[in-house]
Amino acid sequence: MSENEDIGKLKDISNKIWKERNIQGKRNKYMSKENIYPLSPSKKQRRHDSNSIF
Protein backbone atom coordinates (compact mmCIF):
# COMPACT_ATOMS: atom_id res chain seq x y z
CA MET A 1 0.00 0.00 0.00
CA SER A 2 1.46 3.33 -1.02
CA GLU A 3 0.75 6.57 0.82
CA ASN A 4 -0.89 8.04 -2.26
CA GLU A 5 -3.46 5.22 -2.37
CA ASP A 6 -4.39 5.87 1.26
CA ILE A 7 -4.78 9.59 0.62
CA GLY A 8 -6.95 8.88 -2.42
CA LYS A 9 -9.23 6.65 -0.36
CA LEU A 10 -9.50 9.26 2.38
CA LYS A 11 -10.44 11.91 -0.18
CA ASP A 12 -13.12 9.64 -1.66
CA ILE A 13 -14.62 9.02 1.77
CA SER A 14 -14.61 12.69 2.77
CA ASN A 15 -16.17 13.66 -0.58
CA LYS A 16 -18.97 11.15 -0.04
CA ILE A 17 -19.62 12.44 3.48
CA TRP A 18 -19.59 16.05 2.28
CA LYS A 19 -22.07 15.29 -0.50
CA GLU A 20 -24.40 13.44 1.88
CA ARG A 21 -24.26 16.31 4.37
CA ASN A 22 -25.11 18.80 1.64
CA ILE A 23 -28.10 16.74 0.49
CA GLN A 24 -29.33 16.35 4.08
CA GLY A 25 -28.97 20.07 4.73
CA LYS A 26 -31.09 20.89 1.71
CA ARG A 27 -33.71 18.36 2.81
CA ASN A 28 -33.81 19.75 6.34
CA LYS A 29 -34.23 23.31 5.09
CA TYR A 30 -37.12 22.20 2.90
CA MET A 31 -38.72 20.23 5.72
CA SER A 32 -38.53 23.08 8.23
CA LYS A 33 -40.08 25.43 5.67
CA GLU A 34 -42.96 22.98 5.22
CA ASN A 35 -43.44 22.76 8.99
CA ILE A 36 -43.52 26.53 9.53
CA TYR A 37 -46.46 27.02 7.16
CA PRO A 38 -48.40 23.76 6.83
CA LEU A 39 -51.30 25.72 5.35
CA SER A 40 -50.72 27.79 2.23
CA PRO A 41 -49.02 30.98 3.45
CA SER A 42 -50.13 34.50 2.66
CA LYS A 43 -47.88 36.64 0.47
CA LYS A 44 -46.53 38.47 3.52
CA GLN A 45 -45.54 35.22 5.24
CA ARG A 46 -43.98 33.81 2.09
CA ARG A 47 -41.81 36.91 1.64
CA HIS A 48 -40.69 36.74 5.28
CA ASP A 49 -39.86 33.04 4.95
CA SER A 50 -37.61 33.53 1.92
CA ASN A 51 -35.75 36.33 3.74
CA SER A 52 -35.04 34.16 6.77
CA ILE A 53 -33.11 31.59 4.68
CA PHE A 54 -30.39 33.98 3.52
Could you describe the 3D structure shown?
Residues 29-54 are annotated as: Disordered. There is one protein chain. The chain is mainly α. Helix content is 83%, strand content 0%. It contains 2 helices and no strands. The longest helix has 34 residues, at 3-36.
Write a compact overview of the structure shown.
Helices cover 83% and strands 0% of the residues.
List keywords for this structure.
54 residues; mainly alpha; 2 helices; 0% strand
What would you call the quaternary organization? single chain
The proportion of strand residues reads under 5%
Largest sheet: none
* Structure summary, number of beta strands: 0
State the end-to-end distance: 46 Å
- In angstroms, what is the radius of gyration? 19 Å
Overall SS class: mainly alpha
How many DSSP H or I helices?
2
Helix content: over 70%
- Secondary-structure element string: HH
Shape: rod-shaped
Q: Stretches where pLDDT falls below 50 for ≥5 residues? A: none
Overall pLDDT metric: 71
Question: Could you outline the blueprint of secondary structure elements for this entry?
Answer:
Layout: H1 3-36, H2 43-53
